[in-house]
């Protein structure tokens, strides 16, 4: 297990290479930034600006995109969000993720881009699980990118990114990383297939919005399958 490193002693940029992705961290005056590059995708640490707000408003107000994500409902207006069980708006979520980067917290969100066309593909996040020491990965993309392997490519890269964040000595909520989780709706067969390939099934549960979910995990160490290594 990588030892925790005091942030003041880390040197930047820090680069890592996995089997499917290259990862780079940069410490700038305005906070930490990260970039993940795969064969077809580029993931960039999210910023809170008008362009990003517009991109995320389009993405998370798309019913097809949201059918299996979070509450399974478009995020909508502030009034609509406040009526939901887990109230948030696009601006609030983007601000939360951007603030994490500003605080040099690598467990945050990325905008996802097609490297060849430079088109906005969707969203990816390495967030905080409810259990201390665990991250949770997730993603959402436009339907025109479904069934083309982009989801599997992104999720494999997020696992390697989490390993890189751990190797950099970044704790999660103040403790060393223990593992990574991901969830999917049983009817979301494409995501279930990806997670079965990359992770270990941990169990079933019902989320706070009343939707059944399947939970998958990879631990840092001590399992038949563990978090991928990066160099």
Q: Taking all residues together, what is the mean pLDDT?
A: 89
What gross morphology would you assign?
globular
Biggest sheet overview: 10 strands, mixed
Strand order of the main beta sheet, please? 1-2-3-4-5-6-7-8-10-9
End-to-end distance: 14 Å
Which blocks of ≥5 consecutive residues have pLDDT under 50? 1-9
Please, how many helices? Answer: 6
SSE map:
Layout lengths: L13 E4 L4 E7 L2 E7 L3 E5 L4 H11 L2 H4 L11 H5 L7 H13 L6 E6 L5 E9 L5 E8 L8 H18 L11 E6 L4 H10 L1 E7 L5 E8 L12
Parallel strand pairs: 7-8
Antiparallel strand pairs: 1-2, 2-3, 3-4, 4-5, 5-6, 6-7, 8-10, 9-10
Helix pairs in contact: 5-6
Folded structure, characterized:
This protein is globular. The N terminus is likely disordered. The protein has 231 residues and is α+β, with helices and mostly antiparallel strands. Strands 1-2-3-4-5-6-7-8-10-9 form a ten-stranded mixed sheet, with helices on both faces. The chain has six helices and ten strands, in the order E-E-E-E-H-H-H-H-E-E-E-H-E-H-E-E. Strand 9 and strand 10 form a beta hairpin.
């Amino acid at each position: 297990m990588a030892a925790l490193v005091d942030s003041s002693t880390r040197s930047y940029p820090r680069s890592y290479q996995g089997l499917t992705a290259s990862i780079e961290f940069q410490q700038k005056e305005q906070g930490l930034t990260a970039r993940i590059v795969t064969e077809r995708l580029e993931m960039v640490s999210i910023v809170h600006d008008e362009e990003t707000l517009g991109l995320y408003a389009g993405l998370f107000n798309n019913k097809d995109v949201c059918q299996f994500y979070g509450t399974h409902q478009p995020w909508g207006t502030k009034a609509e969000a406040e009526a939901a069980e887990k109230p948030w708006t696009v601006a609030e979520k983007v601000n939360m993720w951007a603030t994490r980067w500003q605080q040099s917290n690598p467990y945050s969100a990325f905008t996802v881009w097609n490297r060849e066309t430079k088109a906005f593909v969707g969203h990816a996040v390495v967030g905080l699980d409810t259990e201390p020491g665990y991250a949770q990965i997730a993603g959402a993309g436009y339907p025109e990118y479904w069934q083309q392997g982009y989801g599997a490519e992104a999720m494999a890269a997020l696992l390697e990114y989490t390993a890189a964040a751990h190797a950099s000595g970044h704790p999660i909520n103040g403790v060393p990383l223990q593992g990574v989780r991901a969830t999917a709706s049983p009817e979301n067969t494409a995501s279930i297939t990806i997670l079965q390939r990359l992770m270990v099934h941990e169990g079933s549960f019902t989320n706070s919005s009343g939707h059944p979910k399947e939970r998958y995990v990879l631990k840092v160490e001590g399992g038949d399958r563990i978090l991928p290594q990066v160099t």
